[in-house]
Amino acid sequence: MTNLEVREFISTIRRQLFLSALMRFSLLILVTSGIVAMPFYASENRPSDILWAVSLLAGLTWISLTFLSVKQLRAANQGVVYLADGRLDLAADQFSTAALQFSLFRVGKLRACNNLAVVAHGRGKFEEAAQLLDAILQILRRPDQTLTKTARLLLADCRLSLGDATTANEVLAPILTNGQRQSLTEQLLLLPIQIRCQVAIGDFKSAVDNLPWKLKRAELLDSPRAAQVHALLSEACRQTDRLAEANFLMTRAHLYADLSEIMDERPGLRDLLFSTTSADNI
């Protein structure tokens, strides 16, 4: 999608979320009114009969719209299958369709938008993904913790790829300072992005803090990300005059994967490594 199409898509999502919230509120008021009026119901009382009929209709409408919402979730789940198979075009179409379908529940629609951002990120369309993720974080007033973390991690990676390390650091800050214990999966998702962000903004001391722990986590990553983390930690060590560790880590990085291929795939990463003496052998 072009930038204009992304903005129009986000505007449509915001409008649909507002309408679904208004509909939920209206239906809830009507159903509640019928329940509250139950003790005062009298036969052959026309206003009471009308209230009951409207309340019953509202309840049936809520049930019908819930079924539509479930259909939307199923469409999004099919997109996840396409994404896992690497069929990004089909996944993008499925997530876009799911996001635009009516749903009473905002989180399901936002998850479809988040997955659409994942597809855009996978295609290297970082600006498109960043716009979608910015919108998701703005809309989540009472955040879904899992969705918020995922969106922030992906947004930080997009901002780094777009050369905006300062914004990426600001995006990551709430995750790093919320004081909540992170699962191993979350630690592995965060580590490559956090290290890259720290090196990009020149915070080399923080990057090499607790180095043994970070290396243990890096060894659990897939080969390309493990190579990236080792190379970035090597640069951080070089900048802090820990030259022996820097050489060791760069050697390890070369063993994990071809760094030149990784730098071609990750915009901005070459600038962090190639201009340094530690990258002379890449």
Output mean pLDDT.
83
How many helices? The count is 14
List segments where confidence is low: pLDDT < 50 over at least 5 consecutive residues.
Answer: 275-282
Count the beta strands.
Answer: 0
Instruction: Provide the β-strand percentage band.
Output: under 5%
Strand count, sense and barrel status of the largest sheet are:
none
Please estimate the helix content: over 70%
Global morphology: elongated
The run of helices and strands is HHHHHHHHHHHHHH
Q: How large is the radius of gyration?
A: 25 Å
Structural class computed from helices and strand pairing = mainly alpha
Determine the N-to-C terminus distance: 35 Å
Structure in words:
It is a single chain. By secondary structure, the chain is mainly α. The chain is 78% helix and 0% strand. It has 14 helices and no strands. The chain has helices at residues 3-36, 46-84, 88-100, 106-122, 126-139, 145-161, 165-177, 184-200, 204-208, 211-218, 223-239, 243-256, 259-265, 269-273. Helix 1 (3-36) runs parallel beside helix 5 (126-139) and helix 8 (184-200) crosses helix 11. The longest helix has 39 residues, at 46-84. The protein is elongated, with a radius of gyration of 25 Å. The relative contact order is 0.07.
